[in-house]
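<backbone_tokenisation>
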Amino acid sequence: MINLSGVSKRFGTKLLYENVSIALKPGEKIGLVGANGSGKSTLLNMVSGKITPDSGDVMLTRGFRIGFLEQEFESPGDKTVIEEVKGTFLKHEKVIQDLNEQMANTPDQQSLQQLMRKYEDVEHAFETRGGYDLEATCRKVLGGLGFSDEMMRRNCSQFSGGQKMRIALAKLLVEHLDCILLDEPTNHLDLPAIMWFEEYLKSYTGLIIMISHDRSLLNNVSNRIVEITGQQIYTYEGNYDYYIEEKAKRLELIQKAAKLEQKERMKIERFIERFRYKNTKASLVQSRVKQLEKRETTEIPLEEHFIDFKFPQPDRSGYEVVKLENITKSFGRTVVLEGFSGTFLRGEKIAVTGRNGTGKSTLLKIITGELEPDSGTVKKGMRVTIGYFSQFYAEQLDPNNTIMEEMDKLRGTKSPTDVRKILGRFFFSGDEVFKKIGVLSGGEKSRVLMAKLFLSDANMLILDEPTNHLDIGTQRVLLDALDDFTGTICFVSHDRHFINSIATRLIYFDTNLIDEYPGTLDEYLQSRQPDSLEPKYASVKVTNERKERKRQEAEERNQRFSIRKQYDDAIERIEEELESLMREENELTQKLADTSLYKNPDNARQVNERYQQVRDRIEILTSEWEKNSLEREKFL
């Protein structure tokens, strides 16, 4: 058990908590929430003993064992993955072996008895912590976090930072600790690993205290939410959704109480003011003054402020926004995409999710043109403008540029004042716009990329892990902005709440398999057999009535398809002619800009006439294209 009593803590001049107390009990699964900078990680550091409070006490039950997964973790040593995860158990095994040898070589009975008692204590502790099942436990945990048998035998130094984070997490989970402290544990986990990890935490019998921006994880695991706000701690006995509801009720009650308090104070003040100068009322006035001084003021919590923006509604693109056919891409000997085909339609919000290392980010980069496929074709539709958000900030942000210089790349005709107004919506104001990109935090860099997207006027947004480094409140603002966006969105994410909230279609990347599903992530996961890649279909007895209904539906579909095909053919012919005319328009524009053309007036006149003819024809075809596109949508 952990008790915090009268704890206060400052960092520099900033007060994080003042005189807070809370008891944290075994079996509780606590979600620790609060705005960025409110002191969540500091609280975990105090509980772990890494830092001490300025005043007050942090008390632990005697022998209470705590493990801590930090965001900035100690990198695994120069061992194989399986050896690293076994960690302290190997030391215990060595102690047991040494004691066995000592007992075998100790003839003195009294010394032998002492060694045997020590052996029993060490062996009991080893068994209690699951030491004799260690190999199986390690493999189960590592497998759940995405490590194959071959990966478990590799040296830790061969893995990326995200994979090393998984190794550190696995090491923590096999320890059988009384309490685990988790600071953003899902940051480097893919969807299958997150779902396995969630089930593991549900079955964990010790105390869990975790900071997470994963709303689904907080909902499915937490049985208590602890919020840090206004230098105080508030607790809610339920999951994250319960916390949102109860917090709203609490704030409403506080606001009502504050209004009543204000009303009563004004009533007393009016009495004092009215009778202040009347001697006959002096004692009553004095009584009211004392009453006013003693009254406690109801503090209304300050509202949290989040970025506030909506994407500008974009120009209308063609119905088919991007079409990919037989896309293949390899890196060295590793084939990442093989024969992938897909069409992205105007207005769709497509989630790309699944296992890490299966080609999700590669697909996005091929769509944007950042990468060329080894084979296959990528065709962009009419009037498609792409805005790209990369999870790897270095790909899009120059660390030597200021925020303002990054925005200038896309400023176009907007004035510096307009750009500064946009940056203000993303919490960059005053001289902050002249900060270098290299000194910004991950969350600040995310906000810069969002501001650049806002400035791009794109009608197709390509987003790679857009919620990384964003707190839940900011994620909610982003969700609302994307939900209102009328263009096309394709995004990679492992955040289940985020995916379920906006995705109209799903592309799921698994080992040697890419699944497409016309629905939400929850629906897709329910459609899969446990431990199988094959979708499950319930066997249903089809009645004659249902057969007839299906026949009619099929007939209607065929009719709609036939009409759509006519419009598709017309649109394709228009687009081909438009592309040809736009190339000619560009050539004619260059000729008209060449001053030597005007040395021959007849030639100049002919070029100008042809230019006008081309412009007129483009205008007519564009109108026809829009009309056909709108009519086509009636038969979807």
Observations:
- Residues 531-547 have pLDDT under 50 and may be disordered.
